[in-house]
Amino acid sequence: MSVFTPDQMKLRQKILLLAVAPLAVAMLGIAFAVRYQATQLARHERALVEAAYLQSKETELRHYVELAQSAIAPMVHSGRTDAATRQAAMEALARLDYGPDGYFFLYDLQGRNLMHPRQPELVGQDLWTLRDPQGALTIQQLIAAAKAGGGSVRYLWKKPSSQQLAPKLGYVVAVPEWGWMLGTGIYLDDVERTLRQLDARAETDIRETMAWIGVIAAISILLVAASGLALNVSEHREADAKLRQLAQRVVQSQEEERARLSRELHDGISQLLVSVKLVLETAANRLRLTPAEGAAVAPVLGMALNRLDTVFNEVRRVARNLRPALLDDLGLFAALQHLAREMQGGSKLEIAVTQTGKPRELPDEQATALFRIAQEALTNVERHARARRVTVVLSFDADATRLTVRDDGSGFDVARMQVDPQRGIGLRNLRERIAALCGQFGIVSGAGGTELVASLPLAKPAPKPATVSHDPVSAGPSQS
């Protein structure tokens, strides 16, 4: 079973978030746009329906008023203005109705009610200052519309069938011969009810649309997440295996390097320092016991100085193994030559170091990587290859810097070495070091010997620091 570290989980969450977040934002934007457009469309539709309905009602009311005018026209145009003629006209208008809430009313132009078939208690009252619950002067608005040649007015009035205030659309005209205002109206509460139903239906449709968008967005996000996980599951497993293997290599390399340094310090420097300490103690005892025999102490002190020189040389050797000073002072080629001389001094190998192409300054990381590769390769040749001659070639090509190490040893099975987890750790470390610098690493081995080639692309060299420290700054090569 794969075990995820917290950093890996955070990386997976970030990748999933990068995949899902744009989709979620897009779906959210679509949802808001659809809701806004649907709301605007519903409002526009409501306004169109209301305008069309009111227009049809206004036309209907105008026809009713024209019918009432034609009913009293003979009396109005007869020239008689006596009370009896006017009363007859009022009675004729009172008999005209169309449904329980359809009737005609009469006012004089000063706001006094002259006839109201459904509310006779208003007859004779002065309603000039009458205001509806919204504060509008109802009768004054009606009279103003009549004097302007006739027209419609919206206002609130008590509905006879329910005795409740309801919105009403009235249409009025003036009868100038008698100083009357003649009008009728239609209550709009059924229109308001229809419009509310239309609004409710539109809101329901919008909610259903948003729900569908939410379902589609959820399914899309789940599909994207599932697809991403399905596509990456094999890579995650492979990456986890490589990480575990790399961690084991790092730990093993660290332990090997610590063991090597511990052996060198204990077997070399530590014993030499103990020896110097004993020699100095011997010299001190002789001076204390026989101060006059100072000449006899001189050889002992000379021995101590010689051993101190040996200690210094050993310290320099360990420091060079950690990071040779020549690599910083004189460059990679000089460091390779010095490495070859040291390797030849302690073995029977014949090592030749050559250089081709026009030399150029290399960045620190490239120079260090190529030196470590040469150091690891020569160490492996000395330990395992049973070779007699090794050739190291540093080539400064036009497009790359190439290091070639070739020996005439017994060779080995490269493919088997690469898949064996217990062997070839040093070579794998070299391959990964070159890959980290975007370079190429190849190795060919057979009965006639082994050839290792490491190539690094051209890179702008980093500025050389003003002061170069010779202190060891990195671990030595891993041994395989």
Helical proportion, percent range: 55-70%
Which homologous superfamily in CATH is the superfamily of the largest domain? PAS domain
In the sheet with the most strands, the strands line up as 2-1-5-4-3
Shape: rod-shaped
Q: Please write the CATH class name of the largest domain.
A: Alpha Beta
Biggest sheet statistics: 5 strands, antiparallel
First and last CA, distance:
31 Å
Number of helices: 10
Helix/strand/pairing class, anyone?
A: alpha+beta
Q: List the secondary-structure elements in sequence, H or E.
A: HHEEHEEEHHHHEHEEHHEE
**Name given to the CATH architecture of the largest domain:** 2-Layer Sandwich
Outline the low-pLDDT stretches. 1-5, 466-480
Compute the average pLDDT: 80
CATH topology of the largest domain: Beta-Lactamase
Domains (count): 3
